[in-house]
Design a protein that fits this description.
Blueprint lengths: L1 H19 L5 E3 L12 E8 L3 E2 L7 E5 L5 E9 L3 H16 L2 E5 L9 E13 L4 E12 L5 E12 L6 H22 L1
Parallel strand pairs: 1-5, 2-6, 2-7, 3-7, 4-7
Antiparallel strand pairs: 4-5, 7-8, 8-9
């Protein structure tokens, strides 16, 4: 009888611990790419810097912006890495896929370039008031020798969130909004 009580107590303890365990968090990556390849411009090279962002976007969380400006995070979903690093990778891929530059690199790749792309993530969130994903990135092309800004522009992309707000729907909508922004940045830069 004591053995049965001990087994039941162990089972109860195990079920209680399982109920208190945190739910698994689904992890998402960005996969935006732009279509089309143009001829490479020999000699033109660009260093793509990691975007700067406020703390709410400089993390792995997926942000939802409320109608009153409040920010909440999806509790069951996250990015595969810090968002600025993921966006930098997507910017590099977009320029490489377009094939319009002779060389595209990160700062630590050892490449010497005369231009660098500086950017700031202003928005990368779901807008609960509109049901859309919003991506807004401020971009500056800087001459690395003089430090002068050659040109600057803010790019915004929106995409509807299909269905209920969930990790997969949020990630897909943000990825689609980013794809629009990337295509515009590559065409402009």
């Amino acid at each position: 009888m004591a053995i049965r009580i001990a087994r039941w107590a162990a089972l109860s303890l195990g079920l209680t611990a399982a109920a208190c365990a945190p739910r698994p968090v689904t992890t998402f990556d960005l996969s935006s790419s732009i279509a089309g390849r143009g001829g490479a411009r020999a000699g033109e090279a660009l260093t793509v810097m990691e975007p700067v962002a406020l703390q709410s976007l400089d993390s792995t969380t997926i942000v939802v912006r409320g109608g009153g400006g409040e920010l909440t995070m999806l509790g069951d979903a996250q990015w595969a890495d810090r968002l600025p690093r993921l966006v930098q990778t997507q910017l590099l891929r977009a320029f490489e896929d377009a094939g319009r530059l002779g060389k595209v690199s990160r700062p630590n790749d050892g490449a010497v370039t005369s231009r660098q792309l500086n950017s700031e993530l202003r928005q990368f969130n779901l807008d609960s008031a509109t049901g859309e994903a919003v991506v807004e990135i401020s971009v500056r092309v800087v001459d690395t020798l003089s430090g002068n800004v050659v040109r600057a522009r803010v790019f915004t992309g929106r995409a509807p969130v299909s269905g209920a707000v969930s990790g997969p729907a949020a990630a897909a909508a943000l990825d689609a909004a980013l794809a629009k922004v990337l295509a515009e940045i590559v065409g402009w830069a």
